[in-house]
Specification:
Structural class: mainly alpha
Number of domains: 2
Strand content: 5-15%
Radius of gyration: 17 Å
Shape: elongated
Helix content: 55-70%
Strand order of the largest sheet: 1-2
Order of helices and strands: HEEH
């Protein structure tokens, strides 16, 4: 494993810890995540299907912006 891979693993770990702490402390205030207009929810008697398309698009755009900012700083 080279040094660059080790740095990315550390960055991913730090991001996961921050995300976990955010959901632990502010989880009750983040109920809107996954409940945006456009998220597909189908609930029947013995079946439920959930596809958070709007939430995934929002997170994809935010992640893309963050990555572009980080790459621009280098």
């Amino acid at each position: 494993m080279n040094q660059q891979s080790a740095k990315w693993i550390i960055v991913i770990g730090v991001v996961l810890v921050i995300a976990g702490m955010t959901f632990y402390f502010f989880g009750d205030k983040l109920k809107w995540i996954g409940n945006l207009p456009g998220d597909i929810k189908i609930k029947k008697e013995n079946f439920s299907f959930y596809f958070p398309i709007t939430t995934m698009i929002l997170f994809s755009v935010l992640l893309n912006i963050i990555i572009r900012l980080i790459n621009g700083i280098k």
